[in-house]
Design a protein that fits this description.
globular; 538 residues; 14 helices; 5-stranded mixed sheet; single chain; 21% helix; alpha+beta; 4-stranded antiparallel sheet
C-alpha cells in the first residue's frame, strides 16, 4: 500500500500530529508491516514511541544461544530466584514489602495459574533498608529492584516486571521497562526458551504508560490496577483488549459505568488488591448518589461532567476521575477511591464518617474541607503528599496512619479532635504518623496547628524539637507547662525565638471556643528566664 494511504489511515486513526511526527522523523516507519494496527491504541502523541517504531524496521532478532536457565542467570545478576508455581511460592516474597506497598499479586490467589512467575530477591536484601530511601524513591533504585517479580502471561504476548515499591513510584509494574535483558543480558531469550512462550522486548524499550500487546501492538494506558490497563475508551485484561461502547459506557478510573441502566462494575476486581482487603466502596456510594435521579453527561475542554439531576457529581478526564462531589453522602466505607491519584477536588458537605483507606493516594489534592466529618478510619489521606490545608472542624476521632505521608501541610484545623486514652490507645503522636521523618517535616513546614484538645493527651506531645510558628495551646494549659513537656525544653524554645520572620502568611484557623494561649516572641523570652530560674532552684 502506498505511503500516502498509510499516512492518511494513521492520520484519521491517531490524529494529524501523530502521522506528521512519524513522517518527519522517518517515513520508512510507514513500511513496517501492519503499522496501522500496531499504533491503533498508541494515543495521539507519536514522539514518545518513535524510537521503538523505528526499531521495527528490522524485526529480525538474533536469538542467543541458550545455555543457562533464567534462575542461573539471575543468580549471576545478584539475585536468589525461584519459579512460583504455587500460591505459597507466589506470595513468599510478601514479607519484604513495606505496609501499603504490597503487590496486588499477593491478593490474587489465581495469578500463578495465568502467569509464569519468577520471584527474585537480591542476595544482600537485608542490608537495603526502606527508611534510607524515604522521600527519594526511584523506580530502578537499589531498594526498588532488590525484590522483583517477573510475570509472563501464559498465553504469550505480555510481560511485566514488578518491583518493591508498588504504587509509591510511577509505573512500578514496568520496572526495567519490562525487558529482562536490562537485568542481565540473555535473560529474555532464556525465559522464552524455558517457558516456551513469546513476548516482545527490544533494545528500544517503550516509555512509561505504554505496554506491548500480543508481541507487536503498542498500547498507551492512563491507569493500571491489578494487572488491568485502562486507556482512552478501552481496557486491557489478561492480554485481551476490550473497547467500550462509548454510546452508553464511560470509564472512570477502574470503574465502568453504564449510563443507560445505571450500573457500575469494577473491571479490575479491585477487592483482590484493595488497600485493606475490601472492595472499593465507591461501588456502593456512587449508585446511592444517583438513585432516582436523571443522569446525564456533558463534555468540554476539561473532560466529561456527570450530573445527577442538576448537580455535578464527577469530572472525568482521559478516563480518570479528577473531581468528586457527594452532596448527600453521610458515611463512606473502606478503600474509597484509594488509587484515584488524579483527584484534585473533593466535596462532601454532609459526610460524617469514613472507614479505612479514604482517598489513600491523592497527590494532586491540595485543599480539603469536610465540615461535618466526625470520625475517620485507618490511613486517612495516607498519601495526599502535597495537601496544604485540611479543615475538619467537627472531627473528634482518628485512627493510625492519619496523614502519614503528608509533608507540606500548612494548616490543620481540627478544634474538636480528641486524641487521648479514652478514645485511642496511649500511643505518642509520632507513632500514629508511623514515620518520624514525615512528622518532622510537618512540624517544620506548618505555620499553624489548631488541635487544642489532643495536643497533650499522650506522654509525647510533639515528637520533634520543631514548633509551628502559630501554635494554639489547649484550653487551661499554660505556655510554661507546654515548654516543660517538650522533649528538648529550652532548645525548642530557642527555635521559636530565632525563627525567621519572613515566613509566608498562611490561612488563619477557625477560632477555638475558648481563648487559647499563644506562643509569642516576647512571651517566649520571658518564659525562658522563668524556666531557667526554676531549673536552677531544683
Amino acid at each position: 500500500m502506498a505511503e500516502k494511504s498509510i499516512f492518511e489511515q494513521i492520520k484519521k486513526q491517531n490524529g494529524e500530529h501523530f502521522a506528521k511526527a512519524i513522517r518527519a522523523y522517518d517515513s520508512g516507519i510507514f513500511d513496517v508491516p501492519g503499522i496501522v494496527d500496531i499504533v491503533k491504541y498508541a494515543g495521539r502523541e507519536a514522539e514518545p514511541i518513535i524510537p521503538y517504531l523505528e526499531s521495527l524496521k528490522d524485526i529480525q532478532i538474533e536469538a542467543q544461544t541458550v545455555c543457562k536457565d533464567p534462575i542461573t542467570l539471575l543468580s549471576e545478576a545478584g539475585y536468589d530466584a525461584y519459579y512460583a508455581d504455587t500460591l505459597e511460592k507466589q506470595n513468599a516474597i510478601q514479607r519484604y514489602f513495606a505496609p501499603g506497598e504490597e503487590l496486588c499479586t499477593f491478593r490474587d490467589p489465581e495469578r500463578f495459574q495465568h502467569y509464569y512467575i519468577i520471584n527474585a530477591i537480591r542476595k544482600d536484601v537485608d542490608k537495603i533498608k526502606r527508611e534510607d530511601f524515604r522521600g527519594k524513591e526511584r523506580r530502578e533504585d537499589k531498594y526498588g529492584t532488590s525484590v522483583i517479580s517477573i510475570q509472563i502471561l501464559k498465553n504469550g504476548g505480555f510481560i511485566s516486571i514488578k518491583n518493591r515499591y508498588n504504587h509509591t513510584v510511577q509505573n512500578p509494574d514496568n520496572t526495567f521497562n519490562s525487558n529482562p535483558d536490562r537485568i542481565i543480558r540473555g535473560l529474555a531469550d532464556s525465559i522464552r526458551h524455558h517457558f516456551h512462550v513469546d513476548f516482545s522486548s527490544r533494545a528500544a524499550a517503550l516509555p512509561n504508560n505504554y505496554i506491548l500487546l500480543n508481541c507487536h501492538q503498542v498500547v498507551r494506558y492512563n491507569l493500571e490496577a491489578n494487572n488491568v490497563y485502562f486507556g482512552d475508551g478501552f481496557y486491557v485484561k489478561d492480554g485481551d483488549l476490550h473497547p467500550i461502547d462509548t454510546d452508553k459506557e464511560i470509564l472512570m478510573d477502574q470503574f465502568l459505568f453504564n449510563m443507560k441502566d445505571k450500573t457500575i462494575i469494577d473491571v479490575a476486581d479491585e477487592h483482590i488488591r484493595g488497600g485493606f482487603g475490601e472492595i472499593d466502596c465507591f461501588l456502593r456510594v456512587f449508585p446511592k448518589e444517583i438513585k432516582g435521579k436523571n443522569v446525564h453527561i456533558t463534555k468540554d475542554k476539561n473532560g466529561y461532567h456527570l450530573f445527577a439531576d442538576k448537580e455535578e457529581i464527577l469530572t472525568i478526564k482521559d478516563g480518570r476521575i479528577t473531581a468528586v462531589n457527594l452532596p448527600t453522602t453521610q458515611k463512606i466505607g473502606d478503600n474509597f477511591l484509594f488509587r484515584a491519584d488524579e483527584i484534585s477536588s473533593f466535596t462532601a458537605p454532609q459526610l460524617k464518617e469514613v472507614k479505612d483507606g479514604f482517598l489513600g493516594h491523592t497527590p494532586k489534592l491540595l485543599y480539603l474541607r469536610l465540615p461535618s466529618l466526625q470520625k475517620t478510619g485507618k490511613a486517612f489521606l495516607i498519601d495526599a503528599s502535597y495537601l496544604r490545608v485540611l479543615s475538619v472542624p467537627r472531627l473528634t476521632t482518628i485512627e493510625p496512619f492519619f496523614l502519614k505521608r503528608v509533608s507540606w501541610l500548612g494548616l490543620l484545623d481540627a478544634p474538636k479532635l480528641r486524641w487521648n486514652r479514652t478514645t485511642l490507645n496511649p500511643i505518642p503522636l509520632s507513632k500514629f504518623f508511623n514515620d518520624r521523618t514525615s512528622w518532622k517535616a510537618i512540624s517544620q513546614e506548618s505555620e499553624c496547628f489548631h488541635i487544642p484538645v489532643c495536643m497533650f493527651a499522650t506522654n509525647a506531645p510533639l515528637f520533634s524539637r520543631f514548633l509551628p510558628a502559630n501554635m494554639i495551646l489547649p484550653k487551661d494549659f499554660s505556655v510554661e507547662q507546654y515548654i516543660e513537656q517538650l522533649p528538648n525544653g529550652i532548645e525548642s524554645l530557642r527555635n521559636i525565638i530565632t525563627r525567621p520572620q519572613n515566613t509566608p502568611q498562611q490561612p488563619q484557623p477557625t477560632p477555638a471556643p475558648a481563648r487559647p494561649n499563644r506562643v509569642t516572641k516576647p512571651a517566649a523570652k520571658k518564659l525562658a528566664v522563668k524556666i531557667r530560674q526554676r531549673q536552677s532552684s531544683r
